[in-house]
Design a protein that fits this description.
With about 140 residues, the protein is mostly helical. The chain contains four helices and no strands. About 65% of the residues lie in helices and about 0% in strands. The structure holds zinc ion. The site of zinc ion (ZN) has 8 residues, from helix 4.
Length: about 140
């Protein structure tokens, strides 16, 4: 797995939007998030495997089926989350982390602390959400 915490800020490329210390903190947050997601999916899979080893009758089969569907849905959701975390970690590697994809301004350290996978600054995000609400009406 490519999720590894950088030991010092010097291990990370320079980033125009964040100080080395801020970048290191956020890199750790992202790695921890990835580990958390992986941990969660391992737990769900282990539970399901356990259930499937019981003697199957018709009811158990049906429930195993919906469990499997549930596991797949869960896996898809986790996959999307992991994708976002991976993208953010890649951005750090490329020295482009913290830039708003919409306006090119810095997203800001405080926003990234609460939402390290954010790709837009709060202004652009609010704008997009407003637009989405209007087009949903
Ligand atoms: Zn923006």
């Amino acid at each position: 797995m490519q999720f590894e915490k950088a030991k010092t800020a010097k291990d990370l490329p320079e980033d125009p939007y964040l100080s080395p210390k801020e970048l290191l903190t956020l890199q750790h947050l992202l790695v921890e998030r990835a580990e958390g997601i992986l941990e969660g999916s391992r737990g769900a899979v282990a539970e399901l495997t356990e259930e499937r080893s019981m003697p199957p009758d018709a009811i158990d089969m049906a429930s195993a089926e919906s469990d499997r569907e549930f596991a797949i849905r869960l896996a898809r959701r986790e996959h999307r989350l992991i994708e976002k975390v991976l993208q953010a970690l890649q951005c750090i590697k490329d020295g482009e982390y913290g830039e708003c994809l919409e306006c090119g301004e810095a997203i800001g350290y405080r926003r990234l602390l609460t939402r390290p996978v954010a790709r837009m600054c709060i202004d652009c995000k609010t704008q997009t959400e407003k637009f989405e609400r209007i087009s949903a009406m």
